[in-house]
Specification:
It contains nine helices and 39 strands. By secondary structure, the chain is mostly beta strands. The longest helix is centred in the first third of the chain and has 34 residues.
Length: 743
């Protein structure tokens, strides 16, 4: 949209002027203080605002070493939208550091999330869908993905792809994973959880970092190549980072009916500028091409996406107790894919009840004709559409490109207030516009407007007891209003022991894609979720930490794909065009080999999710660490004959280090998955399969040079089993080399 581009330019101009003016005022005050010492105040006598931490406490450069991070008091803001120590936040939080990402040789979110407690992947589609607490939506539409607080979910259907956007992990400082509903602050996509990727600032880099890699995607395939460079520095109050990457990535997911090769080609660039801890602006460009290659060269399908964005945030401190934050985002996408992937036949297939009135007969391949029934069962397409479809299916699919453009505009204003000292209140208003032009998929440009107001109050009742209550009101132009309340209790009865009781709700309105991609889709209700969770954490000094949790969640109106099959007829004004034996009259031509599969999005019903999780981290010596986690999500769909689907997931990491120069990590992953099977009496029972994977990584760092070698699935036996298809990850390896040049 043209005005969105103007909006970005105006917003950038305004937010660039603000810090420049602030810097000028600082210089004026410093000069005045030099001339008049009475104007200069000792820094120690000026306490920081009660609601906001000091810059030193919130600075990423002030975070401790990786082996202590689980026991530290680092500051994050993702869970409650205000800076807090991790130990004080009433949420189920997992933090993965940049050092851990490097030692994994991780390049995608799949690599990282593979080892997170209670997280597993649904491989029933080509790309893995992440499940947090067992809850999932196709392409991760129920998880909010952020990069430095910027929303990454694509507005088309709210999704993100685990294996795309590889540049997000080239400059990562840490990854914050919040499990549980977050709609009370963030809205629709924060349904099952939030993932926020925090990147390094210029003060963390202080020069140029280059990285090159060769190896495989976790699912094997041909060798991939990765090239990345990041430059960052700090000059006075200004902090800046420039990042770029280029990669050729191959994957291979082998099914029982033959191999499927995936190839991704990506180019990415971004730049970020920060003034003090007050103002931040970032812009970037991403481009990815993803041909899908099979053993049949004629079935090549080229698709891809380009993306440009601009985001800015400004924090204005009103006084010691209050602060105002303004956050603006403008994101543009261009998506393209082959015509055969665009369901062109779905758009031009008509219902049998709407057969034109001039149709007098149905003809078949044998030269027979039949009268048209009053209520014909099946579907038809016109002769022109039929010939167009044949041309698409017989020729190179890249000759016909379908696609669409997408825009998302987000504006948010938040007010923080600490009053009195033990009461922290935040309130905000938010506006979001999603706009999608599907081009050939639909003749219409579809859009969505969402207005929201959120409020949260956290009260420190005692030194070891805090209460939190909040909620969000959303109004969607298509689906009306929704309220998402939440509440929690955070209690520390003993030193090192913390108990968290949490309750939250969430919703997700049907995406633009779900509403408009299939014409047969009827009315859809928004998905809703309510979840309760108890979390107990215990930390013993810097020796070990344990965390156990139990959750119970109920969802209603989950959205999935439904379809029906019926005979497909070809409508033609002259039946003899289809078969010379037929009379020259308008009619429907019947071919027993033609079947219409009419897809639609439907509300699939009500689900219950429950389960327990445990994780423990032990540091018995400076050179040794052991991390273990176990989770057992249980899923049950109301009204279905299948039993509860219970999974058992175990992860373990054994780490060895020598003087921060060399490291060795051994990763173990085991998953027991059920599959519903019907016995001779017609009842269903679960049949279980255990799948195991073992990885190793070894590397070291000497001065400015670091090297990491990782081997995945060293026993070459890991597999996911789904119905008639077997998805398997092969043994693979990855070598990463990083060089840092300081100035």
């Amino acid at each position: 949209m043209r005005y969105q581009g103007h909006f970005s330019i105006i917003a950038a101009a305004i937010f660039i002027c603000i810090p420049v003016w602030c810097a000028a005022q600082d210089e004026v005050m410093e000069g005045a203080a030099a001339e008049n010492p009475a104007l200069a105040q000792p820094a120690a006598e000026t306490p920081p605002p009660a609601a906001m931490p000091t810059p030193a406490a919130s600075s990423p450069s002030a975070e401790p070493m990786t082996e202590l991070i689980l026991f530290s008091d680092i500051m994050i803001s993702t869970a409650t939208k205000r800076m807090q120590r991790v130990s004080e936040i009433p949420a189920n939080i997992t933090i993965i550091t940049g050092e851990e990402v490097r030692e994994m040789a991780a390049l995608t979110l799949t690599d990282v999330l593979f080892h997170v407690t209670g997280t597993y992947f649904d491989y029933s589609s080509v790309l893995p869908t992440t499940r947090l607490h067992g809850i999932a939506t196709f392409q991760n539409g129920n998880i909010l993905l952020l990069i430095n607080g910027r929303k990454v979910n694509i507005p088309e259907w709210g999704q993100f792809d685990n294996d795309f956007g590889i540049n997000t992990l080239t400059n990562v400082k840490r990854i914050e994973i919040i499990k549980g509903p977050g709609a009370a602050l963030y809205g629709a996509n924060a349904f099952a959880g939030i993932i926020n990727i925090i990147t390094n600032e210029g003060k963390d880099i202080r020069g140029l970092r280059t990285k090159a890699g060769v190896g495989h995607l976790n699912r094997g395939g041909d060798l991939s190549q990765y090239y990345m460079a990041t430059y960052g520095d700090q000059n006075g109050d200004w902090d800046y980072v420039v990042d770029a990457s280029y990669w050729q990535q191959f994957g291979n997911m082998q099914a029982d009916d033959g191999p499927l090769h995936n190839f991704f080609l990506g180019k990415n660039a971004s730049a970020a500028l920060r003034y003090k801890d007050e103002w931040f602006v970032q812009g970037g460009f991403n481009k990815m091409d993803a041909p899908l290659l099979t053993d049949d060269p004629t079935s090549i399908m080229v698709h891809g996406i380009t993306n440009g964005y601009l985001t800015t945030k400004y924090d204005y401190t009103v006084n010691e107790q209050s602060k105002i934050s303004v956050h603006l985002e403008d994101t543009y996408y261009n998506k393209y894919y082959p015509g055969t992937q665009g369901n062109l036949e779905q758009i031009k297939i008509r219902s049998g009840a709407d057969v034109p009135s001039d149709v007098t007969a149905i003809g078949d391949m044998m030269g027979n004709t039949y009268p048209v029934p009053a209520n014909i069962t099946g579907y038809y397409m016109t002769m022109d559409t039929y010939m167009e479809l044949l041309q698409l299916m017989s020729g190179p699919s890249e000759q016909v490109k379908l696609g669409g453009t997408m825009n998302e505009l987000l504006a948010e204003v938040q007010y923080d207030l600490a009053f009195p000292e033990n009461n922290y209140i935040l309130a905000g208003i938010s506006y979001r516009l999603d706009r999608v032009d599907y081009n050939a998929l639909t003749a219409d440009v579809v859009s969505d407007n969402n207005y929201a107001f959120f409020l949260q109050d956290e009260y420190q009742l005692l030194d070891n007891l805090s209460l939190l209550a909040g909620g969000r009101y959303d109004y969607n132009s298509e689906y009306g209003s929704n309220v998402s309340p939440k509440g929690s209790i955070h209690y520390a009865p003993l030193d090192g022991l913390k108990v968290k009781l949490m309750y939250g709700t969430a919703f997700r309105e049907p995406s633009l894609y779900e509403r408009h991609s299939y014409p047969e889709t009827g009315e859809l209700n928004p998905e809703t979720l309510s979840q309760s969770e108890v979390n107990v954490e215990y930390t013993y000094g810097q020796l070990f930490q344990t965390k156990a949790s139990y959750y119970y969640a109920e969802t209603k109106d989950e959205i999935g794909i439904g379809y029906e099959s019926a005979p497909l007829y070809i409508y033609t004004p002259n039946l003899s065009l289809m078969n010379p034996m037929l009379p020259p009259q308008p009619g429907l031509f019947s071919n027993p080999f033609l079947t219409a599969f009419i897809f639609r999005w439907v509300n699939t019903g009500q689900y219950f999710y429950k389960g327990g999780e445990f994780e423990g981290t032990l540091y018995p010596a400076d050179f040794l660490s052991l991390k273990v986690n176990y989770s057992r999500p249980v899923i049950y769909q109301v009204g279905m004959p299948y039993p509860e689907q219970d999974l058992n997931l175990v992860n373990a990491v054994l780490g060895l280090k020598w003087k921060d120069l060399l490291f060795f990590n051994f990763y173990a992953h085991s998953l027991r998955m059920p599959s519903a099977v019907m016995n001779p009496s017609g009842d269903y029972y679960n049949e279980y399969r255990w799948t195991k994977r073992y990885d190793v990584s070894v590397g070291g760092q000497y001065e400015n040079l670091s090297l990491t070698l990782a081997v995945f699935n060293i026993l070459d036996e890991f597999a996911y089993y789904y119905a008639a298809r077997t998805y398997r990850e092969h043994r693979s390896w990855r070598l990463m080399l990083e060089y840092a040049l300081s100035f």
